[in-house]
Amino acid sequence: MQQNSTVTEFVLLGLTQDPLKQKMVFVIFLILYMGTTVGNTLIIVTIKFSRALGSPMYFFLLYLSLTDYCFSTSIAPRLIVDSLSAKKTIFYNECMTQVFALHLFGCMEVFVLILMAVDRYVAICKPLHYPIIMSRQVCVILIILAWIGSFIHSTAQIILALKLPFCGPNLIDHYCCDLQPLLKLACMDTYMINLLLVSNSGAICSSSFIILLISYFVILHSLQNHSAEGRKKALSTCTSHIIVVFLSFGPCIFIYARPPTTFSMDKMVTVFYTIGTPFLNPLIYTLRNAEVKTAIRRLWHI
């Protein structure tokens, strides 16, 4: 996999160099990752085996939880282990694999959130045609297209990463491998690659965010024609979706849709959307959704 590079491994500087803070990082992120694993697994199993959660909205929620789990798993375990390691070494091939996984599951989350917005739009604005438009076959096709789109995006990212020559130093001022910190180590002019990065990842994040905001504005506007009970239920569901959209896209846009400038808060912003958001999503969707809470109680006899 390695091309045009004399560097065979990188050293991740992590979130902190302080021994005491590293132990705190270990405890905090181990708890967050365990919570992410348990929360998303609970949602996946509940939706999979509960007849009451057979609608397209929960079909997409299942894939959002699966994506969140995979997204967090591509980052969190190494961060947890490295927090107790004296030297946080990652081999070149491992680093490139992490770049690929980060963008594959990150992009998939974006696409699933868009599909969830489409589902809510059809359900609220086109209720009579909803069973036909959002049939199970259509939902499966949409998920397959989302995976294909995510694979194309992550392949483009890894191609850019593989073109970077690394001659030393090999210290990555981050806790994971991504194109932005890698660009700083490349022994070449990275202006064009950064431009491609912004036009790819940055454009996907920004345009998807705008599309989602417009779609939910249209959905909320159309609720005035519904009954009070229908408005309350739809508003509760849409509010959960909107919260997740802001939590997911705010940090993503901050990191990817900007010129090659480094800020001191970059690591914490990245932590928020790679580990924090996958942890919070299950809580948001269960605490604000009566149907999911009821299905969990029935399935797990709580």
From TrEMBL:
It is found in: Cell membrane; Membrane. Residues 39-285 form the G-protein coupled receptors family 1 profile domain. It is a multi-pass membrane protein. GO terms for cellular component: plasma membrane. Pfam families: 7tm_4. It comes from the Eukaryota. The keyword Transmembrane helix applies. Its main location: membrane. Keywords: Cell membrane, G-protein coupled receptor, Membrane, Olfaction, Receptor, Sensory transduction, Transducer, Transmembrane, Transmembrane helix. The chain crosses the membrane at residues 24-45, 57-80, 100-118, 138-162, 201-223, 235-257, 269-287. GO terms for molecular function: G protein-coupled receptor activity; olfactory receptor activity. PANTHER family: OLFACTORY RECEPTOR (PTHR48002). Belongs to the G-protein coupled receptor 1 family. This is Olfactory receptor. It comes from Nannospalax galili.
